[in-house]
Write a structure and sequence with these properties.
Elements lengths: L6 E3 L11 E4 L7 E3 L1 E4 L3 E2 L3 H6 L9 E4 L14 E2 L11 E3 L2 E2 L1 E2 L1 E2 L5 E2 L2 E4 L10 E3 L15 E5 L6 E10 L4 E4 L17 E5 L10 E5 L4 E4 L10 E4 L6 E4 L4 E4 L2 E5 L4 E4 L5 E3 L2 E5 L4 E4 L5 E3 L2 E5 L4 E5 L11 E3 L2 E3 L12 E5 L3 E3 L2 E3 L6 E3 L5 E3 L2 E5 L6 E7 L8 E3 L2 E5 L10 E8 L6 E3 L2 E3 L2 E3 L4 E5 L4 E3 L2 E3 L3 E7 L4 H7 L11 H6 L13 E4 L2 E3 L2 E3 L6 E4 L2 E3 L5 E3 L4 E4 L5 H4 L37
Parallel strand pairs: 1-22, 2-23, 3-24, 10-19, 22-25, 23-26, 24-27, 25-28, 26-29, 27-30, 28-31, 29-32, 30-33, 31-34, 32-35, 33-36, 34-37, 35-38, 36-39, 37-40, 38-41, 39-42, 40-43, 41-44, 42-45, 43-47, 44-48, 45-49, 47-50, 48-51, 49-52, 50-53, 51-54, 52-55
Antiparallel strand pairs: 4-21, 5-6, 6-20, 7-16, 8-9, 8-21, 11-18, 12-18, 13-14, 14-17, 15-16, 15-18, 16-17, 19-20, 43-46, 56-57
Length: 617
């Protein structure tokens, strides 16, 4: 079913508790709301000017398609975007046989650094950023009118795209069309600048690369397969497929929402709505956004191949600690954050009192979950192949508010987390990160396998206190825990100086619910590491003085797993550790997805990325 504009639902489209409105596929997965268009008419490139700009090795392989002759004249636009940048616009993408093609880029993989930063750039002064480049390759792009850079220009956790303004081969400099800015500051080499160039006709040198000349409407593609046997598509719809405003008791069951330039589903202030066994895929923006309302459910859904966040689950009232009670369960979420690469997780969880359980999240450049708020329960989830590109991040992360309390991480399985090679990093990557004074968290009964990279442990604490890390299993990690309380953290300093920080609550309600807030400025701050099993890994990396240790055991020999070689980390009844410590068995075989009529797809099998042996670094 081709979608040309949003389906807008409002209050009058609601059902009731006894008579909900249900949109259901007759057969799950076969009713597809489609926001794209198939392309045909590809032919060889004959224009001499275009052939001259193409790489020699691909000139006879690239094919062109005139979108205007197909009635397509809206090509969207490329804009400055990324973390702390302007909002990302609807974005046209190209797919062949369901796989996203790559806007022609150099280098074809990874990033390059700069030789020297000439000018950081200043927006207030109207001064663009300028740097000296390393490779002569840049000199091939002097005729390109719409070339861009994607990269990390100040911090290795803040991605951005900036347009190329000028390339000077004699000076070996690249000047941006407008200055890169983050928080009023320009580019910085403190953590190392890394980037790649893209949207360049001159760089179509690999199968799967493409370029659209927006002035003429001509699309150029180096086909990955024989096009006569392939389906070639672009996203068309530049708005959400479904918007819902103050809707109640509406259910979507077994439907597919596929291929668009923007967001998939946006539900605002809705109550008791559900998406069961649905698939949301190939959205250049976000997948499903639940903002406000209460008791909305995502059950058994597949959300994948999104340009930004897969889901946003937001609700509840932090002022009154009223729960939103949204539920996300048994969902498979993968290949998100493909265009905007940082702070675009599988689940952006905010507010009060949500449950995230039995989900599978994998294949992302940064975090699987960004968490804000209070009283969330995050349990029985499997997370792997995350934080593959960003630095100074966790697969699950909270940031900078010690009145975020009551969050529980229970019975989750984290594995293969972090950068997989020699990529640039300064700090590290963790499975769970409590950043900038996050305090009062409970991490209980989780399994961590190969998810401590760089200076980070599998659980990393940056300055916080009152965190309890209890009854977990750490396997083959460089260190189980890193960080700890730090009096000099900027959050503690601001609070001691009496500054009023937005979103910080220290009133009677918060003090009665979370008594430790009353003493959170007392010295010293203590974190607790109790009854954890550490197998073939270190214990605590830094700031050990204020960590209370109780009954932690380090094993070099198998402590009693059912089959560690095959990653079955259930413990046998006769495991040695039960004889020496008060450890409660973790229900490992219950973690992750489960078979159900409400699952969008089944069975589900995944392969985690390979992780280098930390002992060899």
């Amino acid at each position: 079913y081709v979608v040309h504009k949003s389906l807008d639902l409002s209050t009058e489209d609601s059902g009731t508790a006894l008579g909900p409105v249900i949109y259901r596929a007759r057969q799950k997965g076969t009713a597809v709301f489609y926001g794209g268009k198939q392309l045909d008419g590809f032919e060889a490139v004959t224009d001499i000017v275009i052939l001259r700009r193409l790489p020699v090795e691909s000139r006879d392989k690239v094919r062109q398609c005139n979108l205007k002759t197909l009635g397509i004249d809206d090509y969207g636009r490329l804009e400055v975007r990324g973390f702390a940048q302007p909002p990302s616009p609807p974005t046209l993408e190209l797919f062949v046989d369901g796989v996203a093609m790559t806007l022609a880029r150099w280098p074809n993989e990874g990033f390059v650094g700069i030789r020297k930063l000439i000018k950081a750039g200043s927006k207030s002064a109207g001064e663009p950023s300028v740097f000296e480049y390393e490779s002569d390759r840049h000199e091939r792009w002097t005729e390109a009118s719409d070339g861009w850079l994607f990269g990390y220009f100040h911090f290795l956790w803040a991605d951005a795209t900036v347009k190329i303004g000028k390339i000077d081969p004699s000076a070996r400099t690249l000047t941006t069309a407008e200055p890169y800015q983050y928080g009023g500051r320009g580019m910085s080499t403190r953590q190392g600048i890394q980037y790649y160039a893209f949207n360049l006709l001159e760089e179509i040198d690999m199968p799967g690369e493409w370029y659209l000349e927006r002035k003429t409407g001509m699309l150029y593609l180096y086909p990955p397969f024989e096009l006569s046997k392939s389906i070639v598509e672009i996203g068309m719809l530049p708005e959400p497929m479904i918007t819902m405003d103050k809707v109640s008791h509406v259910c979507f069951d077994g439907l597919v929402f596929d291929l668009a330039r923007y967001n998939g589903i946006v539900a605002k202030d809705c109550n008791s709505c559900s998406w069961t066994g649905c698939t949301v895929s190939r959205m250049a923006g976000n997948g499903i956004m639940i903002h406000g309302g209460k008791e909305n459910w995502l059950i058994g859904c597949d959300v994948h191949t999104t340009g930004r966040r897969a889901t946003e689950v937001i609700g509840g009232d932090r002022v009154t600690l009223t729960p939103g009670a949204h539920l996300m369960e048994n969902c498979r979420i993968y290949n998100f954050g493909r265009i905007d690469r940082t702070y675009t997780p599988a689940i952006q969880l905010e507010g009060v009192g949500h449950r995230v359980a039995h989900n599978l999240m994998y294949n992302g450049p940064s975090s699987a979950m960004r968490i804000e708020g209070n009283d969330h329960l995050i349990e029985f989830n499997e997370v792997h192949s995350m934080v593959q590109e960003s630095d100074d991040q966790g697969a699950m992360e909270l940031f900078r508010n010690p009145t975020y309390r009551g969050v529980i991480f229970r019975h989750n399985y984290f594995h293969n987390i972090g950068k997989t090679g020699s990529e640039t990093a300064v700090h590290g990557q963790a499975a769970i990160r409590f950043d900038d004074a996050i305090s009062g968290m409970l991490v209980y009964g989780n399994v961590f396998y190969r998810c401590a990279n760089g200076n980070f442990g599998a659980v990393q604490m940056n300055g916080g206190r009152d965190n309890l890390i209890d009854n977990n299993i750490f396997i083959d990690c460089k260190q189980g825990i890193s960080g700890g309380w730090y009096r000099g953290n900027g959050v503690w300093t601001s609070l001691r100086e009496g500054q009023r920080l937005s979103g910080f609550y220290q009133n009677e309600l918060y003090l009665s619910r979370y008594p430790q807030i009353a003493t959170m400025l007392d010295d010293p701050g203590i974190n607790r590491l109790w009854r954890n099993v550490l197998y073939k890994c270190g214990t605590v990396a830094t700031r050990t003085a204020n960590i209370e240790m109780f009954q932690n055991r380090v094993f070099q020999e198998d402590p009693g797993f059912v089959n560690a070689k095959n990653r079955n980390f259930n413990l046998r009844d006769d495991a040695r550790l039960f004889e020496t410590m008060c450890f409660k068995s973790i229900p490992f075989d219950q973690i992750g997805l489960y078979e159900s009529a409400s699952r969008a797809t089944w069975p589900v099998e995944t392969t985690a990325v390979g992780m280098p042996d930390w002992r060899n670094k």
